[in-house]
Amino acid sequence: VQLQASGGGLVQAGGSLRLSCAASGRAFDPYAAGWFRQAPGKERELVAGISLRGDKKYYADSVKGRFTISRGSAKNTVNLQMSSLNPEDTAVYYCAARYDPTSVHIIVWEYDYWGQGTQVTVSS
Predict the structure, then answer these.
(1) pLDDT confidence of residue 27
(2) CA–CA separation, 15 vs 83, rounded Å?
(3) How many CB atoms lie within 10 A of CB 117?
(4) Residue 28: per-residue pLDDT
(5) Percent of the chain with pLDDT over 90
(6) Phi/psi at 61 (nearest 5 deg)?
(7) Residue ranges of E strands in 25-76
(8) Cα–Cα distance between 119 and 28 in angstroms, integer?
(9) Whose CA is closest to 47, among 12, 82, 21, 8?
(10) What is the DSSP string of 65-121?
(11) DSSP character for 124?
């Protein structure tokens, strides 16, 4: 499966952005999905993960209450709604997928497929 992330950009602190990840080649079914981010000089970290059916979700503590991961009505999209953004959220955001019909995954190396990344910059 090929993943294409979009929706990044420059936003002021306190603002919102919506990232989308579209799968081509086949749908996101039966794949678990996740959003990760990597800031300069830092390791890639999980932002949020979601199971195939959307019944299991996981959020990093740093984004709980501000970010929401969801599956689109079309089965080939996964979205990340980001609100109350702050400069610490600045990073390249990547979507990822792993073949799994039931679980949510939170570890980088568990994911098999990765999108190309989209830059999110939050100005203070």
Answers:
(1) 66
(2) 6
(3) 17
(4) 64
(5) 81
(6) -55, -35
(7) 31-38, 45-50, 57-59, 67-71
(8) 23
(9) 82
(10) TTEEEEE-SSTTEEEEEE-S--GGG-EEEEEEEEE-SS-----GGG--EE---EEEE
(11) -
Strands 77-82 and 113-114: unpaired
CA distance 79 to 101: 18
Q: Mean pLDDT over residues 68-83, rounded?
A: 90
Residue 115: which of 60, 53, 44, 57 has the closest Cα?
Answer: 44
- Amino acid type, 51: S
Q: What is the pLDDT of residues 88-107, one digit of tens each?
A: 999 999 999 999 988 999 89
Angstrom distance (rounded) from CA 1 to CA 33:
12
Residue 82 tokens, joined: 């980001």
Measuring CA to CA, which residue among 88, 124, 89 is closest to residue 13? 124
Residue 24 CB contacts under 8 Å (≥ 6 apart), including other chains: 1, 2, 3, 4, 76
Q: Which residue has the tokens 């989308």?
A: 20
Cis peptide bond upstream of 40, omega within 30? no
Pairing outcome for strands 57-59 and 31-38: unpaired
